[in-house]
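Hi W., the iron/sulfur cluster complex you wanted:
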Amino acid sequence: MDSANAAGRLGELAPELRAALLAWGQAHGRHQIPWKLTPTGAPASPGEQLDPYPIWVAEVMLQQTQVQVVLPYWRRWMAAFPSVEALAAAGEHDVLMLWQGLGYYSRARRLHQGARQLLGQPFPRDLEGWLVLPGIGRSTAGSILSSAFDLPFAILDGNVKRVLARLTRSPRPPARVLAGFWQLSELVLDPRRPREFNQALMDLGSSLCTPRHPSCGTCPWQGSCAAYAAGDPAHYPVKDASKPLPFQVIGVGVVLNAAGQVLIDQRLNEGLLGGMWEFPGGKQESGEAIEATIRRELVEELAIEVAVGEELISLEHAYSHKRLRFVVHLCRWLSGEPQPLASQQVRWVDPQDLGAYPFPAANAKIIAALLERLQPGERVPSA
Ligand code: SF4
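Structure:
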């Protein structure tokens, strides 16, 4: 069904779709998500305002992560930074420590910047006011506005795109016809109960209209769903042919000095893992032995010479846009004062103190392997 036909059909069906979804949401939706409760712990009544700050934090955490994973992080975050003022006053190190494990760390830094930007101002009640904050897109802004103020703003996260793609049997990938999908989300939104409607729509996408095996038998929209009628819901949303993810090998040096301290560096603030700490290393070049990669990278990034010793651990990690294999070797520092030539700063730390620094998930496994490798009483493994 093309966009114009889909919009026309959904426009006609909207009253019926809203009523069915709201009834289903009341019976089967999630009503105890903590950032959507009033201070007394009750679900918000229609039109009742909630504190936007906890919702904002949750929405940013949810951009790449599911509710069940986010919950413990959100609770720790709210205990540490219960208000915009507390977050704005926090240091970046503490902010990254609390985000550690959630991934996509630029989200934490942007949330932090956003709190500083918003400090002393009322929370915006329109899209533009949220979209000027770093890291906030239209769907996140719509979700905050509808959740906090019960205002009629549509959302379009992955779950909603999937449901709408099936409902209309859209022949094109949502990313290629985004304006059309926004129009559909706005058309079905219930302007009188936007908070409840958006929540039910997200719940439908995450519990019934799941990617592989949608539970159409119990779906409130079954009677209007074009993909169900055609018997092929799992074919939607249509995807572009996917290219294989690029694969790279990264040589990593766990460099120890004579005092048993290990060398770590803090990444520049740009990019996915900006501001996180890590063990130094870099990409293996074609035809290069991994030991040579590590020696070369440590000269280029830190201006130090090392003796590359035995392999400590090798592990793979998949990001959304690439797959990496980290080959990690123990190294003995030989010469050169470490310089942050490709990072913000470098530091020698006691291995037992590594837990005080925010590291990406892959590095956490390296730390565990190092601590296991260090024998009691032995400070420098033979490298
Ligand atoms: S009928 Fe099936 S495919 Fe259609 S919206 Fe419901 S769960 Fe999704």
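The mean pLDDT is 93.

W.
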